[in-house]
Amino acid sequence: xxxxxxxxxxxxxxxxxxxxxxxxxxxxxxxxxxxxxxxxxxxxxxxxxxxxxxxxxxxxxxxxxxxxxxxxxxxxxxxxxxxxxxxxxxxxxxxxxxxxxxxxxxxxxxxxxxxxxxxxxxxxxxxxxxxxxxxxxxxxxxxxxxxxxxxxxxxxxxxxxxxxxxxxxxxxxxxxxxxxxxxxxxxxxxxxxxxxxxxxxxxxxxxxxxxxxxxxxxxxx
Length: 221
Fold this sequence. Notes:
By secondary structure, the protein is α+β, with helices and mostly antiparallel strands. The chain has helices at 28-39, 81-98, 128-132, 196-212, 214-218; strands at 7-16, 44-47, 53-56, 64-67, 71-76, 107-117, 145-154, 161-171, 175-186. β8 and β9 (175-186) form a beta hairpin. α1 packs antiparallel against α2 (81-98) and α2 runs antiparallel to α4 (196-212).
């Protein structure tokens, strides 16, 4: 695989409150108007029970807003990460104006969905994940799908982030290898003070990590 052939399918931003906002539905109309203006999307509002609202667009596979008493999650299909980052930060600012509790978050982060390859590899297992990571595992029968989840603390170069890498390989008739790269900070003790500026730093680091270190950390040859 070559990094030049990777295709970024969508981006996601997640903002989590320090404690639940049990009155989160009170200003949804105003917030959703802000989101619609920023994203330039029309959407259907789906009220899922007492504690979850989804915003969906039937024509966009990877557009979704998840809003509940604890978090606001925004996923979208846009041309570039910088474009997405600008929209996500404006949405966070809009939410903070309506809910002061969102000014200091428990968690802030961003995730990329990446299509790594649609070309079936050649080899003993016809699988990138088996060949590179788990070739000593002996399983009978035909392999259909392989999923790996790697979670680690990134503490290099003065940075401290929580990194999740999800790798999913479909080995059916149509081959597919995808990745979700999730980078965030969690304020478990109140020391990080995850405000708007720190969220910007998280986003900037995520982009830098993807461009400069991601492929080397995976050690895919």
